[in-house]
Structures are given as C-alpha cells and as structure tokens.
Design goal:
By secondary structure, the chain is mainly α. The chain has 16 helices and no strands. The chain is globular.
Length: about 450
Amino acid sequence: MVLTACVLASSMAFIDATALPVALPRLRADFGADLASVQWVLNGYMLALASLTLIGGALADVYGKARMLALGCILFGLASAACAMAPSPTWLIAARVVQGAAAAIVTPASLALIGATYPRAERNRAIGIWAAASALTTAGGPVLGGWLTETFGWPSVFWINPTIAVVAVGVLLVFAPKDGRIQRRFDVIGAAILTLALGALAWALSQIGPAEAHATDAPAQMGTVLTIVARLGIAGLAVYAFWERRTKHPMTPPRLVKNRAFLGLNVATLMIYGAVSIMFFLLPFDLVDRRALPATDAGLAFLPFALGVGLLSGVFGGLADKIGARAMLIAGPAGAALAYVWMALGQKESLMLGVIGPMTLLGLSFAVLVAPLTASVLSSVDQTDEGLASGINNAASRIAQLAGVALAAGVASFESGYDVGLAVAAVTSIGGAFTITITPTLGTAKAGSGGA
C-alpha cells in the first residue's frame, strides 16, 4: 500500500508533464495569449522542479519521508485546482511554479519512502514497479490530455490531480510507517544559494534552443544574457560548495562527496540522461520535417520506448535483486548507445527499420537500467541520507536533460546535425557505462559509513 501511494503521488507529476502540452493550443486560444506566455506555462514548472528537487529530498530526511510526501501531494493538488480555475495566463504561470515546487518534494520523497520501506534485497523490484507505472502514465498522458481537452476543455487536465492527491494522502495516513526523522537543522542559507544557482543554470540551459530560434531579433544581446546567467549559476554552485564546508549543518554533507559509489552513480546519471535527451530533441524534427509524418504519428513513434520501460522495468528490477546491479547498469547504457548508432545509420531506411527498431531497443535498455540505477543510488548511502540522495539524483537527471537539449539545439543547425547529435549521444552513453565499470562497491553501503 505504501508503494501504491508512492506510485499515485508520482503519477500526478508524470501525467501532468505529458498531458498538458496537448492542451496548450486550446489554452492559448481561450486566453488569447502569445507564444511566450504559453512557453512559460511549461518553463515555470520545469524551472521550479529543477531548482528545488535536491532541497525536496533534504526536507524528506529532516522532517520525515511520508510526512513530506503527503505535504507535497496536498500542495500539488491545491496548485492543480488553482491552475484549473486560472482567470489569466499570469495566474496560471504562478500556479504552475507552485506545482513544480510541489513536484520537487513529491518525486524524491516517494523514492526515499520506497527505500525506507523495502529491504535492500527487494528494493530493485519495488523501484522497478514505480518506474514502470511512471513510464505508462507518461505514455498515456498525451492520449488522456487530448481526450479531456476535446471533451471537457483544458481545465479538466488539471482536475485529475486533486482526486489522486486525496487518495494518496489517505493511503499514507493509514499505511505509511512511522517517520524516522533526522536530528539536524535544515540548512536554509544553503538551500537559498542552491535554489538561485540551479535556477539560473536551468534557465540559461532552457533558453538556448528558443534563443537560437529567435536569433534574428537580437542574437548578441540574448547570447550575452545567457552567458551572464550561466556564469552566475556556476558561481552560485561554487559559493554553495564553499558554504557547505563552513556550516555546521550542511544540506549536502561532505561524506556524500567522499562516497565514490554515490558520486560515480550520479556522474553516470548525468551522462545517460543527457544522451537520451539529445535523441528526444532531434528525433521529432526528423520525423516531422524529413519523413513528413503527422504530429500524432510522430508521437506514436516514441511508444515502443515508453512501453518497454513500462512493461519490463519491474521484471528487470527483480532480476537485479538476484544477480546484482553492476552488469545491468553497464548493459543498459551500452544498449542505449547501440540504439543511437542504429538510429543514425537508419536515417534513410524505412520508419520501422530506422526508428521503431532502435526505439524498441532503447526502451529495453532503459528497462534494464532505470530500477537498478535508482536503487543503487539509495543503497550507496545510509538510510538517514536516502531522501537527499534521491533529490541529488533527480536534480542530476533534470540538469542533464536541460544540458542535452541545449547541446542538441546547438548541433541541429548543422547539415549533419542529426547524425552528429546521435553520435554524441552514443559516446556519452558509453561514457556512462564506463563510469559504472570503474565505480566501486555498488549497493554495498554499510550502516554508519555513508556508503563509502
């Protein structure tokens, strides 16, 4: 029942992320809004999520995983109701920012609660079920969003969440184990510095594609702004690192940096999710612009990936409990790299051979990878740090996705941008597999050792 509550809680964020884009044209027409406002309906959510995910994980450790998950669900449900009743684009964007902040609590808290509830011998399978449900709700989001928008209007997309939130909170109140709170103060100053730094970095990365799309307007000025904001973000991260070494109550304790298993897993996460983001950015342009597919058919081309992860993550998660995670964490990124190469070489082949085949392999590769990677991150630290570990790993994947899109937007302007981008994705994914190969003691953290 705890796993059910975690799946329900996370599904709100995943459904919302994929169902809403389908409703944006109707939403824009109803408000008479410009494209910039519509873009910020998505970006406001993304920036809050990317900036606050690490903090959400730390809050789960300090104040209790089930408690923070319930709070995140309530906040997400209320923000969703505010979105549904929005009288203006400004209201909607503000409510979406609150939604993103709530999702930054829900996702790491749900994974940390799974880690605290299941013994390590069963954790891969439990997280596999969570990942499978997430993939299926992500795949079903566009279909559900389209039907709701056509039948009841765009506000109905947001009315899904309050009901799910109420059910999830009810299950948590009845079945969640008593929270084991950590006796340490929350690092408010560090959280503020980190939020500003990650927010600046995420904004700069998210604007690289749009900036290039509008390069005829004021390319020099926009490029200068992006450079300044990106540098401020990097400088903010340096200030945060300095602060964490000085404060008596660090949000990210130095022991995590010294934990080679935890560090290696997060570096691998950056590479693996950065690579897949490059592919997800480039492929739709190839499908629509070169292959001349309708938008609906182009969306269906991604279905083999979602179904592969959704239907097989639980199976491979259980297998990882039996044979260990390392082999699967190497095979997954290696298989993904092969899929990117296949996709590049098959650009002039039929849709089935050049897209559906490699997307099927990619779905299989990520089904092998997702659950063992998440479970290994949680197992590489003490239980007292699992919320923070989940937050850091989620933040790493978000930043990797933004960086991947930024890199893909940069190479897409070249004549061979599709091939070059997929080659970079393949090399990066292989880098993730190599990082796992040299990472020591996966999933063997000892109590009191910090996983080192």
